[in-house]
Amino acid sequence: MLFKKRPFIIIVLILLVFTLLTYQSLKGESRFSNLAVYPLSLIMQADSAVIGGVKNILGIGRWSEERRLIDKARKLASEAGRYAEIESENERLRALLELKSQRTDTVTAAEVFARDPTNWFQVLWINKGLSDGVLKDMTAVTSAGVVGRVYRVLGGKSSIILLTDVNSAAAVKIQPFGIDGILEGRGIRNCYLKYIPQDAEIEIGLPVVTSGLDEIYPEGLLIGYITNISKKSGEFFWEIEVKPAQDLNAVEEVVILRR
Amino acid sequence: MKDVIPYLFFALMGVSFQATLFQGIRPDFMLILVCCYSLKHGQNKGMAYGALTGFLIDSVNGFILGPNIFSKSMTGFLVGLIREKVFYWNVTLNTIVIIVLSLLDIFVVRICFEIFSDLPINNTPSEALIFQIFYTSAFSLLMYPIFNRGDEGKKFKLRGAVR
User: Fold this and answer.
1) Confidence bin at A4 (pLDDT 50/70/90)
2) Which candidate, A246, A247, A258, places its Cα nearest to that of A143?
3) Which of A87, A131, A246, B152 has the most neighbouring CB atoms within 10 Å?
4) Is A26 buried (19+), middle (13-18) or exposed (0-12) by CB count in 10 A?
5) For A117, which residue in chain B has the nearest alpha carbon?
6) Looking at beta carbons, which residues of chain A come within 8 Å of B61?
7) Which of A140, A114, A103 lies closest to A244, judged by CA?
8) Does residue B125 register a pLDDT over 60?
9) What's the CA gap between A24 and A30, in Å, rounded?
């Protein structure tokens, strides 16, 4: 019956959406969005585990000797692939353990199980949350460098906003000269480094580290390296592109650091 | 009700796969799903389904609730309209509709964020969005035989359609 009344549905839907949007723009973050995240995150975690498993599984059938040998070869190849995967996982975990033992400000290590489903944001979901001591604006790092900061914390899950996200900014300095600037995400693989005056002597390949001035990212963490420098006429500052040291599309585990 | 349950399952799985399967730029599965649902069940149910899928997407990205609810229900509405006004649905129309709806979806989401939030979403590179449209239309072609099984070339209700 309800579905028969088209104008009613359209009006109700538009009113509902605009009320919701206006409420959020006035009151800030809404808690309604957490309603669907709990069941969805469970599905996403299950999917993530299944996808990881499927990578190593190949078809099985035993109709002939030839088929049996093919199967065996496939199994061996699959096992070799699995061992390579385990080896690389071991390496990553060893590096994370080293990082955890080197630093005194670590909170926990976490596994990435999902990413933002749209292309608007660069967000990761990890399997640790409030119950593990994770709080908003804590820093997520790997042994290679900074990944981003904790944006949203739920009971046992949190989301991390990556350095490359358009909403992300960090106070950084170019080493070894210590020139301060602001790093902003571009929504793709690289970031922009802003407010570096054109009289500063910089070159491609120099490392960029956090300066700690934003009071979010701890000082001295490697962010990435300068990959491109350009100059626009009439501008006071260099246009600098920075490639994160950690490939942010390939993050599987992170360590969370205290603010 | 029986029709809704599989699509509800598809919506949950769609959001989940979009979040777990892809690294980098990803297609908009939800848009394809809303199109399929709206084509099969009409404008009103299509809009409601669009609102539901939009709610799921907005919930996961966790910034503001609403932009995707609005854009996806609009997708359901428009596809329902096409279903009533256009009497053939084929691969070409499918591709054109998906491209146009993707563009519209991007436009609506951007406008909503621009008006109702402080997020600098305008800085999102257009190349990511162009690739998203390309991938979405490619995936819609892959999904076409599955979701439109038996519908190709079939006449829809000819309410107001011009032959």
Assistant:
1) low
2) A246
3) A246
4) exposed
5) B19
6) 116-118, 120-121, 123
7) A140
8) yes
9) 6
Joined tokens for residue B132 = 């998203």
C-alpha span between B148 and B91 (Å, rounded): 10
Q: Are A222 and A183 in contact, with CB atoms under 8 Å apart?
A: no
| Nearest CA-CA distance, residue A65 and chain B, Å | 36
Our CA-based measurement puts residue B119 at a distance from the nearest CA of chain A, in whole angstroms, of 6
Residues of chain B positioned with their CB less than 8 A from the CB of A48: 20
CA A83 to chain centre: 26
The verdict on B21 touching A (C-beta cutoff 8 Å) is yes
| A197 cis-preceded (ω within 30 degrees of 0) | no
In the structure, what pLDDT confidence band is assigned to residue B45 with cuts at 50, 70 and 90?
Answer: confident
**Angle at CA of residue A130, ends B21 and A39, nearest 5°:** 45
Helix (H), strand (E) at residue A242 = strand A239-244
- Read off the pLDDT of residues A88-97 as tens digits, 9 standing for 90 and up: 777 777 777 7
In 3-state terms chain A splits into helix, strand, coil percentages (rounded to 5) of 35, 30, 40
Asked if B70 has any chain A CB less than 8 Å from its own CB, the reply is yes
Compute CA distances A254 → A146, A171, A243, B18, B29, whole Å.
9, 21, 19, 21, 28
The pair of three-digit structure tokens given for residue B67, joined into one six-digit string? 């932009």
Long-range interactions of A216-221: CB distance < 8 A, separation 24+: A216/A137, A216/A139, A216/A149, A216/A170, A216/A259, A217/A139, A217/A146, A217/A149, A217/A170, A217/A171, A218/A105, A218/A139, A218/A257, A218/A258, A218/A259, A221/A139, A221/A141, A221/A145, A221/A146, A221/A257
| A123 close to B (CB below 8 A) | yes
Q: What is the pLDDT of residue B145?
A: 72
